[in-house]
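tool=predict chain=A
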Amino acid sequence: MLKTASALLLSVLAGSAGAQTFLSATLNNASENPPTVPTTSTGQPRPASFGTASFFIDSAQTFMTFTATIFNIDVTGSQTPDTNDNLGNAHIHAGPLVTPTTNGPVVWGFFGAPFNDNAPNDSSMTPFTTGVGGTFSGKWDLGEGNSTTLAAQLTNILAGRSYINFHTTQFTGGEIRGNIVAAVPEPETYALILGGLAIVAGVARRRARREDDPSST
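tool=predict ok
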């Protein structure tokens, strides 16, 4: 009975975890099309900009959340004295013809224009307290999109035909970009699953002992 209960729970949990989708992106200058080489407004080199992003699509595919952290892009306009690195807009781009080396249309904006995280507004931006950059988060709900919807773009997103893009004063077409691809779930996800399995397995073990020993209470 214990083995059966444990196997059944593991199957259910695995199925539930498998229905959720984890994605990630690594953003850098080289991934832009064409690649970018950041400079100041006077033509002097400035530090390369880069970042990472993670995404989660729920099992019912009714929303997609994301968190992105970027470096060496001025997210407030006051982190550096120069204007070339000022963040202007940030979006997710997608389309049936998008590849790692081709561009696609904006399908959902979360900073600047267009801004589509508005039904409701779940966007958040936290600038670094020291240094240049910040962390962004948001939630793409079914009712949102830039002349499209999440439901319409899920096929492109799940097939690797989408990317996250941060646009600056110097590079209005995008300074750093990262293709959105499948990712392995965080260890915390597996910890929660295993924790639930251990609890239910313990209950099943105690129940089995009571059945084997009718005198036990």
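The domain at 21-184 is CATH 2.60.40 (Immunoglobulin-like). The chain is about 25% helix and 30% strand.
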